[in-house]
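Many introductory courses stop at the sequence. We go one step further.
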Amino acid sequence: MWQHNYEPIGGSLAASALVAAVPIIVLFLMLGVLRKPSWLSALTALASGLLVSLVAYGMPVSLALVSVIYGAAYGMFPIAWVVFSSIMLYRLVVDTGKFEIIKNSVGGLTDDRRLQAMFIAFSFGAFIEGAAGFGAPVAVAGAMLAGLGFDPFYAAGICLLANTAPVAFGSIGTPIITLAAVTGLPIQALSSMVGRLCATISVFIPAYLLFVMVGRKRALEVLPAIIACGVSFAGMQLLVSNFVGAELTDIVSSLTCIIVMIAVLKLWKPASIMRLEHDKPGHTAATQHTGRELALAWLPYLLLVIYVLAWGEPAIKKAIDTWTNGLLTSALSAANLSGLNGIAVPGLHNLIQRVPPVTAAPSPYAAVFTFNWLSASGTACLLATITSALFLGLGPGPVVKAYKDTFKQLSFAMITIAGMLGLAYLMNYSGMTSTLGLALASTGRAFPFFSAVVGWMGVFLTGSDTSANALFGNLQVVTANALGLSPVLTASVNSAAGVMGKMISIQSIAVAVAATGMTAADESRLFRFTIKHSIVLMAAMGVLSMLFAYVFPHWVPALPPK
């Protein structure tokens, strides 16, 4: 069994961390400085990561290659799968002409482009995040905004910025559930603390979006709507996370926000309407469509909501997984790879040993690929697409065309996702990520701030708050206990601050570019646009963490006595 060494460069943590950061530096240089496409940047960073893992860390070649394959497989399923399926649904709606009706109905709520952006990118996007997660909000909301006539670049950028507030509770609370499982901390304590952290920032995100989009003066013209949007979402996020639980936080918060926004848009109008340059003033075509036409146009997204909610319901998900795991167990029993609720990755599972301080005691590093193909959110999206085609009276031809067009649109994005997840898993299994985490954890009393940096870095690398929690959650707890801090706070900060790295993860950028119809040349531009906002919001969460640690420690949920 190969054992981790977190200080391979002369026993120095600082020197080792500098070497471990080489793939990240390469990624920043390729994408942000040299302005190369994201797929090429990801593959170049992956190549540099392989070199570091083999030469500096002494990782056996077989373990390194299998960890890359494992990560790339996870990038394809479930991440690329849900993005692919949601974009396929969108293309079917566009190809059938239904999106024009959707566009007109949104215009019927408001002609103002600021309010449309806030409603779709923040309110509707938060609902998709809560129900599906894994890139679907950026894919769906970004495509909708671009279809409504927004500049594709700003449609992508706004959706990436908006996809921060709900991410910690996304996909029916999966990141918090994972964090509780990894750390052994009570899930309700984590849900409460993450809710307090996120709600403090969420209330300002709608204003932040519009400040970025149109500037302070034009944003303040719709201040009543901004307040209604931010307060309704953040207030319900705080209440549900603290008194109900993590699973329903995003669903209830986003639905509340949607209802409040619809009421505001119906009852209040800004003094001046902001339109795009090519808009026709006063043109709202919603009244030109019958109720049946509107219902059929919105039916695919209604079915998407129904399927995703049903698939996320614990009892249904458990029943589906029990059946599919039974099939999987039968298929793998001959290879002795079953009984793990997934596939034990050959040549990697339990062949690496993690050691303190990353873990409390030396322990094998599991590698189990969960292939819940039927209960995955992507499958729910695909079923919504097929069902929509049946209700709309379409034959197999339009569905096949949507599939082909989606594959062509997302081909390079899927290469990017596979490459980045391959790099992330390589850095995890080689110990490189733990080296970086330990270096940040050595900051002493400043650690509450740098715990935010750890979570942010984890999501930047993996593109997933769930993965970042699985990666760094236990490190946050171990470090907090050593420093006399609350482990509930630092573990929660890992998740709450991690979401700020979502907008700069190369996977998210690739999805946003593909969904809005931009070219690969726009990826580096979008990265440079989002990174400054990502750092600002991450730093804000770090400051908030310091306040909870040293000024308001009584507001941190206490652990029950042992």
